[in-house]
Structures are given as structure tokens and as C-alpha cells.
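The protein record quoted in full:
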Amino acid sequence: MTPPCPKCKCEYTYYIDSLVNCPECGHEWNPKEEEAEEAGLVVLDVNGNRLQDGDSVVVIKNLPVKGAAQPIKAGTKVKNIRLTEGDHNIDCKIDGFGAMGLKSEFVKKA
């Protein structure tokens, strides 16, 4: 039994050597490498959606910023995030505030 295609979810995939191929979209991948990637850094938003580098997120509550006169307002959209290890697991740039780290528990996927 071959795994379904991760791109188009096609069930009619087939093996060629160690790679799995999709006849519908032409995607080919190594299922062992995908398992290793999934075992790596996993960051979830407030709703449990998995975040990835380059995603856009929306801040769900006002967040105070040390040294700033005003907080980051709820509803602020943050584009092109980068995931990191640690307490503040999202690195990003926010207009008017610059580069900073956010906690994934205060954002939702856009």
C-alpha cells in the first residue's frame, strides 16, 4: 500500500526505487524523508493548525511591547513568519514595531 500524494491527495501513487510518484500531479517524494521532517519542529496556532515558515498569521489579542507606547493590536496581520525553537517560537517583522518574536498561542493562521 502506497501513501497518498502530499500535494494533491491522489491515492493512485506508485513506487520507483525508493521514491513514491503521483500520476496526477507528477510530484515525487521519499516517504522516509517526510517522516523525518514531521518529527522535527511542530508549531501550532491557537486553533491547533500547524504553522510553517512563510505563513501569514493574525494576532488574536492586544499584545503589549516593552519600550513601545502602544500594544500590537488584535487583528494585525503578520506575513512571512519564520519558526524557531524556544518560548517565542515565531520570528517576524511587524510594521511600526520592527523585528520581534511572538508566541504561537497568541496568533491564528490567516
About this structure: The longest strand covers residues 90-94. The chain is about 5% helix and 30% strand.
